């Protein structure tokens, strides 16, 4: 199992989550579409070569975003990451992927 975490602006929160869920993320036992999310504020400054969805190159931007986390099974993790990136509005979305360990006996 893996845990995928990503940051997304509020305007695209539900579409990006829906894409990840459709690819197989968020399944825990008899439940689906499981995730954790919290609102926060992201910061970035696009370079002159960037094509930002929000903001202008060379200017610091503060954006209301959500941090979303969801589990992914081994057999769908690549599809989930690809779906999240395809649905995400940012040129370079910020995300992380952690492999979850089995609980020792």
TrEMBL record:
Signal peptide: none annotated. InterPro entries: DUF34/NIF3_sf, N-reg_PII/ATP_PRibTrfase_C. This is NGG1p interacting factor NIF3. It comes from Halioglobus japonicus.
């Amino acid at each position: 199992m893996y845990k995928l975490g990503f940051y997304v602006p509020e305007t695209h929160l539900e579409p990006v989550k829906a894409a990840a869920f459709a690819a197989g993320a968020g399944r825990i036992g008899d439940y689906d579409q499981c995730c954790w999310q919290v609102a926060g504020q992201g910061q970035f400054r696009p370079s002159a070569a960037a094509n930002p969805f929000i903001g202008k190159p060379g200017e610091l931007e503060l954006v209301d975003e959500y941090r979303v986390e969801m589990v992914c099974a081994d057999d769908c993790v690549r599809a989930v990451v690809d779906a999240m990136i395809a649905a995400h509005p940012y040129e370079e979305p910020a995300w992380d992927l952690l492999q979850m360990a089995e609980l020792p006996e």
